[in-house]
Amino acid sequence: MTSPAAPSSPPKCAFEVQVAKEDFKFHAAHFVAFDGFREPLHGHNYRVGVRLLGNRKIGPDGYLIDFGDVKRVTKEVCKKLNNHFLCPMNSNVLNISISTRVSNNSTTAASEQSPPQQMTLTCQDGSIFSFPLQDVAQLPIVHASSEELAIYIWSQLLQHLTPSYLSVERGIHTLEITVTEAPGQEAKFSWPVPADEESARLDVASFVSQAAKPPAPCLVAPQVCCPDCIKVKAGTPQEIAQQAMLERLTKAMNQAGVQWNNGPLTCQDVEQFLNTE
């Protein structure tokens, strides 16, 4: 039996493996915070999927990669995150400190000789969260979003499986991670497998745009949380919420192609329509 002839224009990927097991999951708390905005503290039942893209030939063992290797490493990563608060240690809007709890309920500077330790997060809006340090997953991310969690898990899998094994031994050129926080609500991150071990740990901050972002209304707390929010927060909490809803409605109508006076709708236009009897 002869081998099939290669196509004149070889596909970028002929073999791929996808693994998304029932136990690729972790339950964790988080909130996303950026300049002028903070979500309420909440949690998700996260699920993880792994996709590996290879070359046009599989290994001499008949595998692109052994499913067992992928399952073992992914379950280890999920276990470390399970039942923890996901703390973005590289956040630029959270003041994060670690102290040591002592018997008289006072605190001193953290040291290795004086556990247990406590992590305190102070937010722009003045909210303060305190967690036992052992309940915190200290992650090298900027925001505790599903997108950044996917980058983090990508790096963890690369470090455990190693680029040399994936790229050289198995011929895998791309690794894709899916993080699902709710049914129908997921984030994917796909990135080439590097050739060297030093590139296995990605800098999450390098994937975050540095473009200026207009401040969002902080509906968590009615008070002004930062200087940029002063204009946004003019009015009562109810008025703030109504304005935010009006802005979202205006944006949706403009995206749908609705026009007024040969131009895009403004919030004032939509408000006038809503108030017309």
TrEMBL record:
Record-given protein name: 6-pyruvoyltetrahydropterin synthase
Organism annotation: Entomoneis paludosa
Keyword Aminoacyl-tRNA synthetase among record annotations: no
GO function terms (MF aspect): 6-pyruvoyltetrahydropterin synthase activity; metal ion binding
Enzyme Commission designation: 4.2.3.12
Biological process per Gene Ontology, one example term: tetrahydrobiopterin biosynthetic process
InterPro entries listed in its UniProt record: 6-PTP_synth/QueD, 6-PTP_synth/QueD_sf
Keyword terms of this UniProt record: Lyase, Metal-binding, Tetrahydrobiopterin biosynthesis, Zinc
Recorded metabolic or biological pathway in which this protein acts: Cofactor biosynthesis; tetrahydrobiopterin biosynthesis; tetrahydrobiopterin from 7,8-dihydroneopterin triphosphate: step 1/3
Family note: Belongs to the PTPS family.
Signal peptide: none
Cofactor: Zn(2+)
